[in-house]
Design a protein that fits this description.
The protein is an alpha+beta fold and about 650 residues long. It is about 65% helix and about 15% strand. It is built from 15 helices and twelve strands. It has helices at about 1-80, 85-105, 110-145, 155-250, 270-275, 290-310, 355-375, 380-390, 400-435, 440-475, 490-505, 525-545, 575-580, 600-610, 650; strands at about 255-260, 265, 310-320, 325-335, 340-350, 485-490, 510-515, 520-525, 550-560, 565-570, 615-620, 625-635. The strands form three sheets. It has a five-stranded antiparallel β-sheet. β4 and β5 (about 340-350) form a beta hairpin. α1 runs antiparallel to α2 (about 85-105) and α12 runs antiparallel to α14 (about 600-610). It is elongated, with a radius of gyration of 61 Å. About 20% of the residues are buried.
């Protein structure tokens, strides 16, 4: 029920996300449509402004200007021809002009200032027309009747002069009216052009804005749909494909059985493991891979346990095509549907034949090693104790290598001692035979004494050497020194250690510098410090400064909270990578046969990591000297976790 709810919830999320992206597309389209509608309404208003105001005004102003121009032309025709009909036509054109101005005045969107201007022009034109009709009518009659005066009170010359003066004034008024009409016409014509240009620009911008909005909405919606499809569909499909590939390419055999025990799926590893082809295993039963005895003793109880627990892992034998049995580590899981009803069994098997063979070989080798080492058990007890300490570092050799190193070092002095003892025994028997036969001479006895003294000296020297090696080896096996723990001043104690070491380097030109806080006190084991510093100094003198007359040993001590950092360095020969990798290995030395045992730095490693609860690192390269970095707590028994910002590189920053 939970799985069904989870699946329904997952499907609901996918559907919701898809509808969400579709909704964004619809909302984007609605927004773009709303913007287009808003801009269209604005454009429609401007077009209405043009059609209801500017276009009629521009048309009527052009009509008024044309009518007035024609009126003035008719006045001139009336004067030139003397026909009154031209005056009447001029009057009609004046009415047409005034009618056009009147139509402009009736426009609702006409501004008050422009309305006053046109109204004034309308009134002026009306007065001008009345006066013009009278003057030009009289002038036409005068020119027609050969300048006969109609006003008897004035002489003909004066009448002509009067009429000419009136005509000139009317011409000036006509020019003013013509200019006003032209200005009005130009005003409306320019406004009309500007409005049309603005509408064209708005329409152009609206088209591009609509296109941009459409593209943006489509891109956003497609992006969201792509993301949703990728996350909700493609990713699960990829995971399913990867899971299928993982099953197909798994090194473990995987098979799916129905509840009747028939195989419905088996990967290549399962088929190859049993010597079959995967296509031939369809509908094979579990008993196909097991003997009758295995089915009774192992498989049937396993299936019953799986029905109860749902999962089980155990070692099961499988039968190959050639009837051979091989061991496998088998894990079987019970699959259930959404209603928690069992549907299939999934078996994962790994062939452990090689592992079993290795285990058997290892067991046989262990038995052989135990049998071969039984005779040496008593004499190598100390070495076994040391083994537990050496395995703390991955560089530490196995017990066999440790025994070989000890045997190599001890065999030489012991072999010399045995040889000398055997030689002395033989010479003793010879001198005894001469003595028993009364043939012993003074010269023979003197020679025997010299041989005995020389042999005894050799035996004593080599036995002492072997004793020293054994003592050094015992030091490796000790968990901690028996030195008493106490509080001591580190700087003062190091000075005392170097005083005791002074005879080792006083005949050289080597220099030693110590940089340590005077007030630094530790609650630790001073004897351990003495052994560590002594071994480091002797390592520098014997190996680092071999052939060097003047060298420098530097000890720098830095305190950080409860941690003490000791940097020991020399400017000697240094070490290559191979030597550096084995510096802390037991019995590793470059002076073998020249007095070196290879235990000095191993003892230092054990003392620092065990007795002082610290860490030690070594950095060296040929010709660049050697640096040892030692980090220890002020009190090793507090078991503080050592935290310090790096080693050499951190201190040099």
């Amino acid at each position: 029920m939970k799985k069904r709810t989870k699946k329904n919830r997952y499907n609901f999320k996918i559907i919701t996300k898809i509808w969400f992206s579709i909704g964004i597309l619809v909302i984007g389209y609605f927004i773009s449509t709303l913007i287009v509608f808003t801009l269209g309404s604005h454009t429609e208003k401007r077009i209405g402004h043009v059609s209801n105001y500017l276009f009629p005004a521009a048309t009527q102003s052009r009509v008024a200007r044309s009518a007035f121009k024609e009126q003035m032309d008719l006045y001139e025709d009336a004067v030139m021809s003397g026909e009154e009909i031209f005056v009447e036509s001029a009057r009609k054109n004046s009415e047409k002009c005034r009618e056009a101005l009147k139509n402009i005045l009736t426009l609702q969107l006409l501004g008050d200032e422009k309305k006053k201007e046109i109204q004034f022009l309308y009134n002026h034109l009306e007065i001008f027309t009345k006066s013009g009709n009278s003057i030009y009518k009289s002038m036409s009659e005068a020119f027609r009747d050969d300048m006969d005066t109609t006003n008897e009170s004035l002489p003909p010359d004066e009448l002509s002069l009067f009429m000419s003066d009136r005509a000139i004034r009317l011409a000036h008024e006509a020019d003013a009216i013509r200019d006003s009409l032209s200005e009005i016409n130009d005003y409306f014509q320019n406004s009309l052009k500007e409005e049309f240009s603005s509408i064209i620009d708005i329409t152009h911008n609206q088209r591009y804005l609509n296109l941009i909005l459409c593209v943006v909405v489509v891109i956003i919606s497609l992006t969201l749909i792509t993301i949703i499809v990728n996350r909700s569909i493609i990713r699960p499909l990829k995971r399913t494909f990867m899971l299928q590939m993982a099953v197909e390419q798994s090194i473990d055999g995987i098979a799916v059985f129905n509840l009747l025990g028939n195989i419905e799926y088996a990967n290549n590893a399962w088929a190859n493991m049993h010597g079959y082809d995967s296509s031939t295993l369809q509908n094979k039963t579990i008993s196909f891979f097991h003997s009758q005895q295995q089915m009774t003793e192992e498989i049937i109880p396993l299936v019953r346990r799986i029905e109860t627990d749902g999962f089980h892992m155990c070692e099961v034998g499988h039968k190959r095509k050639d009837e051979t049995i091989f061991p496998t580590m088998m894990a079987v899981n019970l699959l259930k549907d959404e209603n928690r009803h069992p549907t299939h069994l999934v078996g994962i098997a790994r062939d452990i034949s090689l592992q079993k063979q290795n285990e058997e070989e290892l067991r046989m080798a262990r038995d052989a090693a135990e049998a071969s080492s039984k005779a040496l058990q008593d004499s190598l007890e100390t070495l076994k104790k040391t083994q537990n300490q050496l395995i703390q570092s991955e560089k530490m050799a196995s017990l066999g290598g440790l025994v070989a190193g000890v045997a190599h070092e001890i065999n030489t002095p012991l072999g010399i001692s045995v040889t000398a003892s055997s030689f002395l025994e033989r010479k003793t028997r010879e001198i005894k035979a001469l003595f028993d036969e009364n043939r012993l001479k003074r010269s023979d006895f003197k020679k025997y004494i010299e041989i005995g003294l020389e042999s005894a000296t050799s035996i004593l020297s080599n036995l002492n050497r072997a004793a020293e090696l054994i003592q050094s080896f015992k030091q490796v096996a000790v968990d901690q020194t028996v030195e008493e723990k106490r509080v001591f001043a580190l700087k003062h104690y190091i000075d005392e250690v170097f005083i005791s070491l002074r005879p080792r380097y006083k005949h050289t030109e080597h220099q030693i510098t110590i940089d340590c806080p005077e007030n630094l006190k530790l609650n630790s084991y001073p004897g351990v410090f003495m052994q560590v510093i002594t071994n480091l100094v002797m390592n520098s003198l014997i190996h680092g400064f071999d052939g060097i007359e003047k060298g420098l040993i530097s000890i720098e001590i830095v305190v950080h909270n409860d941690t003490v950092m000791i940097i020991y360095s020399d400017d000697g020969h240094g070490m290559n990578d191979e030597q550096l990798s084995k510096i802390f290995d037991p019995f590793y030395t470059t002076k073998r046969g020249q007095g070196g045992t290879g235990l000095g730095m191993h003892i230092v490693f054990n003392l620092v990591t065990q007795s002082l609860a610290g860490k030690i690192e070594c950095d060296s390269s040929p010709g660049q000297g050697t640096v040892f970095s030692i980090k220890i707590p002020k009190d090793p028994d507090e078991k503080n976790e050592i935290k310090y910002p790096g080693t050499i590189s951190a201190l040099n920053r």
